[in-house]
Amino acid sequence: MTEVRKKATPVGCNRRRALVLLCAVVATMFAGMIGLGVAGFRINLTPSEALGVWRILPLDRKVEIDDLVFVCVPATDAMRAALERGYLRRGLCAGGFAPLIKTVVARSGQRIKIEDQVRIDGQVLPHSRLQPRDARGRQLMPFAGGTIPPGSVYLHSDFPASFDSRYFGPLPANNILGLAKKVWTYAP
Predict the structure, then answer these.
(1) What φ, ψ does residue 111 adopt, rounded to 5°?
(2) Are residues 24 and 64 in the same domain?
(3) How many CB atoms lie within 10 A of CB 100?
(4) What family is this protein classified in (predicted)?
């Protein structure tokens, strides 16, 4: 019988192939994430809204009460402090913040009164009890209240520990990126 010998492959060659394959997989995943991001897809990892994949849809009309929106917070010292405390995440909005998913609960001209709960034009906003301290025991400073300025919206999440307008006040409506639509989510 004739003996067939396999040619030995150098160990370094196998490592190079594995490294090339790994780089190709990582590059493909990275390109896919960028493509999905450009198409308006976002991943929500915060409990203020359902966890999972969301999409930013164009808002081709005036924002309305009860619209669930993606919004960028302004790049202010207060928002940078909120980022340092972990209330906000890093992302692609101005100042390096990730967009938030919040519900529009009041618009320009409406009056906000902050007590133990939020009142909008005298009516209690459900699920709006203020937290005096965050999960680490640090004091939270609520928004002072007042009339929402022209071109601004007041944002809310039903999640009790949400960082929303209860603490940072109204935001400019032109900071809204679009409507928030669930694609594939899980609400724990």
Answers:
(1) -100, 130
(2) no
(3) 29
(4) Belongs to the peptidase S26C family.
In a domain, 2, yes or no: no
Q: What is the residue whose two structure tokens read 């919040």?
A: 102
Q: Are residues 18 and 84 in the same domain?
A: no
- Check if the beta carbon of residue 180 is closer than 8 Å to that of residue 43: no
Please classify residue 134 by burial: count the beta carbons closer than 10 Å to its beta carbon, then call 0-12 exposed, 13-18 middle and 19+ buried: middle
Amino acid letter, 118: V
Biggest CA-to-CA distance, the chain: 97
> Do 62 and 132 have their domain in common?
yes
Q: Is 4 within the bounds of a domain? A: no
- Long-range residue pairs from 41-49, CB within 8 A, at least 24 positions apart, any chain: 41/183, 42/70, 42/99, 44/101, 44/185, 45/89, 46/89, 47/159, 47/161, 47/188, 48/100, 48/101, 48/102, 48/157, 48/159, 48/162, 48/163, 48/164, 49/101, 49/157, 49/159, 49/180, 49/185
Q: Which two tokens stand for residue 2?
A: 């004739």
Residues 159 and 94 in one domain: yes
Q: Is the pTM of this model over 0.85?
A: no
